[in-house]
Amino acid sequence: MTCYDVIILGAGAAGLMAAIEAGKRGRSVLLLDHAKAAGEKIRISGGGRCNFTNLHTAPANFLSQNARFCVSALKRYTQRDFIDLIERHGIAYHEKTLGQLFCDESSKQIVGLLLDECDRAGVTLWTRAKAGRIERLEEGFSLAIERGEGRDRFTCKSLVIATGGPSIPKMGATGFGYDLAQKFGLKVIPPTPALVPLTFDEMTLGKLKHLAGVSLDAVVSCGKTRFAEALLFTHRGLSGPAILQISSYWRAGEEISIDLLPQRDALVLLKQARNERPKQELKSILSELLPRRLALHIAEELEQSEAPGAFGRMADLSDKKLQRVATALKDWRVLPKGTEGFRTAEVTLGGVDTDELSSKTFEAKKVPGLYFIGEVVDVTGHLGGYNFQWAWASGHAAGQYI
Questions:
Q1: pLDDT greater than 90 at residue 174
Q2: In the chain, how many H helices and how many E strands?
Q3: In this predicted model, what pLDDT tens digit does every residue of 342-364 receive, in sequence order?
Q4: CB 14, CB 395: distance < 8 Å
Q5: Exposed, middle or buried, 277 (CB in 10 Å: 0-12/13-18/19+)?
Q6: Angle (nearest 5°) at CA 84 between 79 and 87
Q7: Fewest CB within 10 A of the end CB: N or C in the chain?
Q8: What is the distance between the alpha carbons of residues 161 and 316, in angstroms, rounded to a whole number?
């Protein structure tokens, strides 16, 4: 039976960071992952360029039942700290939009950086390895590890769970971490897909299917939460950054409101068009403000709400009718049926209840030596590099204590 100071399950962003930090402290570390290579989610992220952090990272960019839990880790390892690491390794990067930082070349550079740091820290990395039965010992843990044809038992003083959530199952994602937490008596907030496209019912799809492929900048709102980014109509419903963002807040049965003309006064524009081009049709005016297919759809919706020809020439439209058009443009309401689920979700909402963990060390309060970090914890970031920063920060924090 082989003994390590630390065994980490999951060689993603959080697991790699925790392994590096523990190894730098002289701890013997075994890092395991069931995939064929470490950092697979890092590799595919950001269109292959990895949106590795965000310049504007702050606690307000994260969802959790305990909004304060993430504060300590994010303060102790900031976006600037990870940027410094990137720069020390000579990796060129750029800001895309809204503080999102991407590699100029490839996400493989981030994986390579982390693996180099693991090597320097003396970390033992095994891929294509699975943890079997895990048992608690008087001091530490015992676990069976399957690798290839072999199966051996190992012990460790600290066991770190960095296995993520069930998002993107084609990458091998599972709810393993939640099952293990519950086995040891820890509460788990039921996981749901986050940063995921929204879907429509068959009737709504029938009305909107001709809009598939249309995209535009919009402000999407659900309750008091709103995001101003791109929106995309798909053959299943809605996607694009604005929709992915709002999906973390949307709940079944709720409408979402879409401002199709952000930062523009629709009523002023419509009255101006009526004065200057009274003989033009409303649909022609709308086609100047929106993508043509969407403009024609909005005009048709308005027609169907009254009578054929009711929203024809601009000269024939009263102020009251123009207000209705403006409302359709600034507060277009849709009722999603659901989401595309974990299959396309970028992350998971929910996870191991933060009340069960120390925000300083990430150790389970009830189970000394057991740690949970990264996506498996009930902390979920907005789209734009925030979830990677949470992985770096939580992994770094736990790495100082494991």
A1: no
A2: 13, 21
A3: 999 999 999 999 999 999 999 99
A4: yes
A5: middle
A6: 125
A7: N
A8: 66
